[in-house]
Design goal:
Number of helices: 4
Helix content: 10-25%
CATH architecture of the largest domain: Alpha-Beta Complex
Largest sheet: 5 strands, antiparallel
CATH superfamily of the largest domain: Medium-chain alcohol dehydrogenases, catalytic domain
CATH topology of the largest domain: Quinone Oxidoreductase, Chain A, domain 1
Strand order of the largest sheet: 7-3-5-6-8
CATH class of the largest domain: Alpha Beta
Structural class: alpha+beta
């Protein structure tokens, strides 16, 4: 299969042939549609992240969107790299994507959503009863088809 392959830490990933994934335990085969590129991906390639790649050659990328054998679309995170035609992923690292959400948006939402959540939880030290104006979550929930957020205010 074709993949974005990194040959050494700090190098530039290249489009190359790479062995097909071998499924282990409960893993499912995901045919990739799209993957996001974010600072985490760049830091792992550069070798400057605490979880940088250690074994080479390796497929790069940590998350993306693909299709399972039954045709369902999933967002997933895979430690073995996702910028490839196919990826082996455990179901615990997958979430179904609503029909009204396109692949590119589904791949892009988690990075800003998790960044906002971590900022509020860790830096903001929010606790039960605190109030925040939460425009980002409202937008994210609308894009993902969730009806859990009916206001831009939350407690």
């Amino acid at each position: 299969m074709k993949a974005a392959v990194l040959s050494k830490s700090g190098g530039t990933p290249g489009f190359a042939d790479f062995p097909d994934p071998i499924l282990k335990n409960d893993e499912k085969l995901v045919v990739m549609k799209t993957a996001s590129i974010k600072n985490l991906d760049k830091m792992k390639v550069a070798g400057s992240h605490y979880d940088s790649y250690q074994n080479f050659p390796t497929v790069v990328g940590v998350d993306g969107v693909g299709i399972l054998e039954d045709g369902s679309r999933v967002y997933m995170n895979a430690p073995g790299g996702v910028m490839a035609e196919k990826v082996a992923v455990s179901p615990k690292w997958m979430i179904a994507i609503p029909d009204n959400l396109d692949d590119v948006t589904a791949a892009a939402i988690p990075n800003p959503a998790i960044s906002a959540w971590l900022s509020l939880e860790l830096k903001g030290k929010l606790k039960a009863g605190d109030s925040v104006t939460d425009y980002g979550r409202y937008w994210n929930y609308r894009k993902t088809g969730s009806s859990n957020c009916t206001s831009s205010w939350s407690r």
